[in-house]
Amino acid sequence: MTQPKDPSIAYDPWQHLNQFTSARIALGRTGMSLPTRANLDFQLAHALARDAVHIALDFTQLTQRLNQLGYATQILQSQAENEAMYLQRPDLGRLLSLASLADLQAQPPLAVDVVIIIADGLSSKAIEHHAVSFIELLLPSLQTKAFQMSPLCLVKHGRVAIGDAIAEHYNARLCILLIGERPGLSSPDSMGIYFTYQAKTGISTDADRNCISNIHSNGLSYEQALKKLLFLMDGAEKLQLSGVSLKDETTEAVGSNMMLPIF
Amino acid sequence: MYKSTIQHLSYDFKTLANLMAKATPLRSGDFLAGVAATNNLHRVAAQWTLAEVPLKQFLNEALVPYESDEITRLIIDDHNSPAFAPISHLTVGDFRNWLLSEQATTETLTAIAPGLTPEMVAAVSKLMRIQDLILVAKKCRVITQFRNTIGLEGCFSTRLQPNHPTDNPAGIAASLIDGLLYGCGDAVIGINPASDNLEATLRLLHLLNDVIERFQIPTQACVLAHVTTTLKAIEQGAPVDLMFQSIAGTQKANDSFGVNLSLLAEAHQATLDLRRGTVGTNCMYFETGQGSALSANANEGLDQQTCETRAYAVARKFNPLLVNTVVGFIGPEYLYDGKQIIRAGLEDHFCGKLLGLPMGCDICYTNHAEADQDDMDMLLSAFAMAGGTFIMGVPGADDIMLNYQSTSFHDALYIRQTLCLRTAPEFEQWLQHHGIFDAHNQLRQQTDIPHVFKASLQQLKNSQS
Description:
The structure holds two protein chains of two kinds. A six-stranded mixed beta sheet of chain A has the order 1-3-2-4-5-6, sandwiched between helices. Chain A is an alpha/beta fold. Chain A has helices at 36-53, 59-68, 83-88, 90-93, 98-106, 124-144, 162-169, 222-239; strands at 73-77, 114-119, 152-156, 174-180, 191-197, 209-215. Chain A has eight helices and six strands. In chain A, strand 2, helix 6 (124-144) and strand 3 form a beta-alpha-beta unit. The longest helix of chain A has 21 residues, at 124-144. By secondary structure, chain B is an alpha/beta fold. Chain B folds into two domains: 2-129, lyase (Annexin V, domain 1, Orthogonal Bundle), CATH 1.10.220.70; 144-433, TIM Barrel (Alpha-Beta Barrel). In chain B, the strands form four sheets. An eight-stranded parallel beta sheet of chain B has the order 7-6-5-12-11-10-9-8. In chain B, helix 7 (92-100) crosses helix 9 (118-125), helix 9 (118-125) packs across helix 18 (338-354) and helix 13 runs parallel beside helix 15 (261-272). Chain B starts with a strand and ends with a helix. The model of chain B has no long low-confidence stretch (mean pLDDT 95).
């Protein structure tokens, strides 16, 4: 581990490529194997990601942050009663608990265009870091379209398909679900957005959804994600569908400084 | 009705599908599906009963109804009776003995492959230990070709997987060069696009094509978009080497993926028509994985390993260059820990090889599974001993787009060194020619960037200074 030059290690003379990606490139080798430092770096990242899975989302704090911005919220829960059950029974994570269903049904009927759901998923850090900022960007653009909206639904131990039941309850045409993605070594806080047109429990499948993933500080920006989402929403309204038949044809402007000038 | 009495307890298994599910080695996904054996004795009773079932029974009793499932129809309608004849008198238990015996040689195994159904193969795997799965798979030989030759004896290939969270071309290119300089990428250079976007797919297809043409690399490219996106790309004249699609083992599951046999046939034909292969015409790349059917609520009462094997019937219809079981990607609700992931990977490899497929394995896990690098090393070592066709090569084993851990360039070097394995011969020549490998196929100690990329990378450095 001594720096800078360990005679057992073959260092890669292309380490400057590191500036273009956060992938683990140009690690060098000792024999054919990973040098000690790179091996320990990996173990450290794995430990952090493992720990991130087990940290619960603070729903009280999330509610407060959203309420302070003037957005109404409600907390719902899936049928997965605890984390262990959530990990092993995705079927329960897709269903609203009886108590949550009763809460929804107790509300006066409301006809809305859009429901927005925020579910903890597999990374509470993703929601903690990105959900509020994204909502701050998203809601004004929905308001300019004069869409009717339900309160923001915050779902504990939720999977993607739990949005269907909520959208169905509100008779909502457009269902937008923000969820914590499975934590990666380099991105324990990646958020995904799933968009479904006319979501219906037991009828909507994965093929009926569009996914915008990898929203985090080294991934897709909030602005890029919003652009994609608005494109998909417009397309869905025209075609009256979402999923594999609705293609995300947004073109990203790639700055010249982002191109590796060799190909 | 399948019955057995064991230890003074009698068990009834109502259908062959039920018997198969109860006989399956323990895994979380079968509990999730509600089809698993209730305890160890129940499981072993099912295995004893399954061992007595004649192979012929699988031709008479469909596990998913013929009328409602096009994969069952494919399996039954395409069954080759003459190929089946030499083993048609065997039970599942006899079949295990036959496979392990000297009678089962590379030649006989190749000859019977079209006579085997996925269910026969899945059944026998349930009676096998890991060493059986390794020993028999090792005897199978499946060779495929596009711009190089994959699956030759003593060869072990890698898919170079230079993914990037935003499909950024520079980020992808950096991982790509790193991988090539570590001797990776003979199976395919394959990118998972961050979103299923036609523009991004087109851009990535052109990027990969430019790299392969400019540096004259004897390999093939693939952007792993949905088949309908890649078909659109072909319509727009994009350079498509391999057509990719994820597939599953029931019609309902494939519906949820937005594919069916006729769409796959159309995609296969469109890719064949491009005639981009130089040494062969295998132009499909499929990915599968235990649990995918259940995750789409479409397992039809089957256990996940049987479902998975039925996906191989879909794959073999289209003579793929590569089939990849992405074994630990789906999560702990299907394969709970390292032990379950290891066995599933070896089962899938065995079943695919027996059916005549070029099986690779994405040896991988997610951070919410009870697994770590040690488990992956165990599977990698066993998979290579079994004669596995290819693995993934991901920088530092950390896929920054898909958020999971797979095998690294270093892992491929480890296994090649330990078991004296080589890359595809055409690719090996390219590596030697450019001084990336030495004459003994060892990675050369580089004090400078190898000549092939030197000018390009120098240009890059200059452009920044």
